[in-house]
Specification:
Keywords: Decarboxylase, Lyase, Pyridoxal phosphate
CATH architecture of the largest domain: 3-Layer(aba) Sandwich
Shape: globular
Low-confidence stretches: none
Distance between the termini: 58 Å
Organism: Phycicoccus duodecadis
Number of helices: 14
Largest sheet: 7 strands, mixed
Cofactor: pyridoxal 5'-phosphate
Bound molecules: pyridoxal-5'-phosphate
GO cellular component, one term: cytoplasm
Strand content: 5-15%
Mean pLDDT: 96
GO molecular function: aromatic-L-amino-acid decarboxylase activity; pyridoxal phosphate binding
Number of strands: 11
């Protein structure tokens, strides 16, 4: 494709994106395909000769759009907000267009330095102190794995040693909440701690936040048995209920044993942009690493996960490689992001954040987050005030966990009712909700925060929920 051909196709693509976004509210929210349907709609071999761009665009409408859950829809309340602000979409296109090779500072100095600038901007916007340095990872799962590796090396004798799993005879122990995201146990396993060395610390039965005294007891028991407390992952905004583990108390306990504290704020971290919500993150500034995903609630299109660490030298000494073919004369003067994580090559993801922040502006982003917090509070109030409905967990941010309990219905029958009314609501195509288990029973999670969701949409949701429970009994 020549630049001139690209110009024509590119204009058509931008028109397609703009038209698509304008009509998202008219589409059913859930993906409309059966397993295998998308594959079956496509040829089994690649084209030998070029096709018309119009045919490719037509297939976006015919095959791709029905095969996508419309997370940009005002009725999307599933999993977590997965906003893809159009400003950041432009940054994504620019990132591909620049065509930079991000392997070292020398291969694309702008890629490194724009990333330094935007991660510093976001650190300051979140009220974290300047000692924190950040890099963009693909996801919070990767960020957690990087933190687990850094913690492992610190606990096993210091980074210069690079002793890895074999460095100590005593097992290294990791601690987290039973409500932590599944990426936490995965990272713990991948970093080699072993499933038997992961402790799920008790949580408060009402708030579902980690009990720091239980953490203290668990660590003391491990030390008494000759094991080494190495790392705690504080779930700040758990996936199920958005419970906020008390970071300050966790840091205090962890410090007694020199354990690393990683704060997983993948979804909730966007709330740090709001000064009035920062009390929920109290103590995070004293942790060792923090990750959060602008690609969730804040709305920079996937994949832009931030990982901040306090001790960059330690991270670099764990992750660095110095092959001769990457050597350059400026190596001593520059940041080499290849040494801050796992991959060598990196995309110019910083452009997505840069475009998003510059084109939308921070104040508009903050206002949207505040709107979502108020909408979630409003919904929770309606649910609490309505007979037969219950909010199951504190609404610390924008997630409302609820259940409808008709008189006399308990146990498995209540679970069946919960899943049935949620499925019925989703089948209307007007909303998309998710279910999850809490204390062994099913509940429905309403995760408010799609960029397009206004109060009127939440009011419509609440009316719909009352309708569907009446018809699914
Ligand atoms: N941590 C928490 C608290 C989450 O809610 C999620 C996603 O739902 C993740 C981690 C994983 O995020 P990612 O998809 O960026 O790996």
């Amino acid at each position: 494709m020549t630049p001139e051909e690209f110009r024509v196709a590119g204009h058509a693509l931008i028109d397609w994106i703009a038209d698509h976004r304008a009509r998202v509210p008219e589409l059913p929210v859930a993906a409309q395909v059966r397993p295998g349907e998308v594959r079956a709609a496509l040829p089994s071999t690649a084209p030998e000769s070029p096709e018309d761009f119009a045919a490719v665009l037509a297939d976006l409408d015919r095959v791709v759009v029905p095969g996508v859950t419309q997370t940009q829809h005002p009725g999307f309340y599933g999993w977590f907000p997965s906003n893809a602000s159009l400003a950041s979409v432009l940054g994504d296109i620019a990132s591909g267009g620049v065509g930079a090779l991000g392997i070292t500072w020398q291969s694309a100095p702008a890629l490194t330095e724009v990333e330094q600038v935007v991660t510093d901007w976001l650190r300051d916007l979140c009220g974290l102190s300047p000692e924190w340095k950040g890099a963009i990872q693909d996801t919070a799962s990767t960020a957690c794995l990087v933190a687990m590796l850094a913690a492992r090396e610190r606990a096993s004798g210091g980074s210069e040693h690079r002793g890895g799993l074999q460095a100590l005879d005593a097992p290294l122990i990791a601690y987290t909440s039973p409500h932590a995201h599944s990426s936490v146990p995965k990272a713990v396993l991948l970093a080699g701690y072993g499933a038997d060395n992961l402790r799920y610390v008790d949580v408060d039965p009402v708030t579902y936040a980690m009990d720091p005294e239980a953490l203290r007891r668990a660590m003391a028991a491990d030390v008494a048995a000759g094991r080494v407390p190495a790392v705690v992952v504080a779930a700040v905004g758990t996936t199920g209920t958005t419970a906020m583990d008390p970071v300050r108390a966790i840091v205090d306990v962890a410090r007694e044993h020199g354990a690393w504290v990683h704060v997983d704020a993948a979804m909730a971290g966007s709330a740090m942009l709001l000064p009035e919500m920062r009390h929920l993150f109290d103590g995070a500034d004293d942790a060792d690493s923090i990750s959060w995903n602008p690609h969730k609630w804040m709305g920079t299109v996937l994949d832009t996960s931030l990982l901040y660490v306090r001790d960059v030298d330690h991270l670099v000494s764990v992750m660095s490689t110095t092959p001769s073919y990457l050597r350059a004369g400026t190596d001593d003067e520059v940041v080499q992001y290849k040494d801050w994580g796992i991959p060598l090559g990196r995309r110019f993801r910083a452009l997505k954040l840069w475009f998003h922040l510059r084109l939308d502006g921070v104040e508009a982003i903050r206002e949207r987050l505040r709107r979502d917090l108020e909408n979630a509070r409003w919904l929770a109030e309606q649910v609490e005030a309505e007979r037969g409905w219950r909010v199951l967990a504190p609404v610390s941010l924008q997630t409302v966990c609820l259940v409808h309990e008709p008189e006399g219905l308990t146990g498995d029958a209540l679970d069946a009712h919960t899943l049935a009314w949620m499925d019925a609501a989703n089948a209307t195509g007007r909303v998309f909700l998710g279910a999850s288990q809490l204390d062994g029973r099913w509940m429905v999670r309403v995760s408010v925060g799609a960029e397009a969701t206004e109060r009127a949409d939440v009011e419509e949701l609440w009316a719909l929920l009352r309708e569907v429970v009446a018809t699914t009994r």
